[in-house]
Amino acid sequence: AYTGPTADEILAKRKNYLSPSILHFYKTPLNLVDGKMQYLFDENGRRYLDGFGGIATVSCGHCHPEVVEAIVNQTKRLQHSTVLYLNHVIADFAEALASKLPGNLKVVFFTNSGTEANELAMLIAKLYTGNHDIISVRNSYHGNAAGTMGATAQSIWKFNVIQSGIHHAVNPDPYRGIFGSDGEKYAKDVQEIIDFGTSGSVAAFISEAIQGVGGIVEMAPGYLPAVYESIRKAGGLCIADEVQAGFGRTGNHFWGFEDQGVVPDIVTMAKGIGNGIPLGAVVTTPEIAEALTRRSYFNTFGGNPVCTAAGLAVLRVIEKAKLQENAFVVGSYLKERLTALQDKYELIGDVRGRGFMLGVELVTDRQLKKPAKAEILHVMDQMKEMGVLIGKGGFYGNVFRITPPLCFTKEDADFLVSAMDLSMSKM
Length: 427
Ligand code: PMP
Description:
Elements: H1 7-17, E1 32-36, E2 39-42, E3 47-50, H2 65-77, H3 88-98, E4 107-111, H4 114-129, E5 134-137, H5 146-151, E6 166-169, H6 183-197, E7 204-208, E8 210-211, E9 217-218, H7 223-233, E10 237-241, E11 266-269, E12 280-284, H8 286-289, H9 305-320, H10 323-344, E13 348-354, E14 357-365, E15 370-371, H11 373-385, E16 388-389, E17 391-393, E18 399-402, H12 410-425
Parallel strand pairs: 3-16, 5-6, 5-7, 7-10, 10-11
Antiparallel strand pairs: 1-2, 2-3, 4-12, 8-9, 11-12, 13-14, 14-15, 14-18, 17-18
Helix pairs in contact: 2-9, 3-9, 6-7, 10-12, 11-12
Bound molecules: 4'-deoxy-4'-aminopyridoxal-5'-phosphate.
Keywords: Aminotransferase, Photorespiration, Pyridoxal phosphate, Transferase
Pfam families: Aminotran_3
GO molecular function: alanine-glyoxylate transaminase activity; pyridoxal phosphate binding
């Protein structure tokens, strides 16, 4: 049993010694002490179904035994920087990761986070093309360092930093966007940015396949192929940010971008790659990777033995336990059940996403699409009381984000929907 400090004691310490900007979702913040697959446990041993572990990087499940074993064994053997010395784990993982990517995407750079991966991807694009301008999509999230904060396009995540050479394109959002589901119309905005906002040459376009922080927004069909064509004509590279959508989460494909039938020039990843271990990666072609040999690029812990041992185990588990297939089957079922709930409650304006990357947008008026900001907090709190955790996001903070560990079952999906149903019925 847990004998550590109480939630109140931890909260008091956080108030004194941690960032004052830390967010808490719940009226009474949860004190989580144990995790097992799709379940989390608080200090009283109370169990919660985790419908939001995906955001915190959990792909295989909390403390998945095979991943934990790989981490423990490698920690006992050696943990070091692999930049200067040889070690087989980093090479084996790079090879395994490259085998999961299409085309000639086979050179891997390891980092410690998604932010670092995107910073490096944009740097490589600038070096390779000799151009400076980057185009990203409004409502996106790409990180919180200088370059990635510029690429991120939501005021709530941006401080007053210099955004050199960044342009934000109209979001191809089928629910709130100005052109509905017509991807090609939105893509014209990217062409216009190139024509009117740059010299005609750009370094890169970067986008998520499904916006995660932005509230599970899928790109309108046909958007990426048209944008990629414009970008390549302007001499730029296409970067796919797979930090949230990658590693089988979207179910129908291993990578989110595959749904739009495109092959990027650079793919960035983090979160699910390590099942909770700090790890990120940039994968590109040998030709583009050459750009980084002009100077020394050094990252002390990027690709260290312990994290890459975890990554290798994650890939094995995803394959062995057929987790992508599970995300497809159970995710589709869960989406069907949530869509049925939309018929029952006016409050649900939209249900969207694929696999285990699902969004439920709450509105107080379906016509005006007025964000139901207070209602979402209430439902979320009620669901927590019933033992179900889900996330929230979107620019207005009114979208449920349902991104469970990939081992989530049909019974778990039923329980989650029942809890949401009951909370909404009591409003
Ligand atoms: N890209 C996307 C799509 C993300 O969702 C995030 C994190 N929310 C990042 C990049 C940044 O990753 P990290 O927090 O590991 O730096």
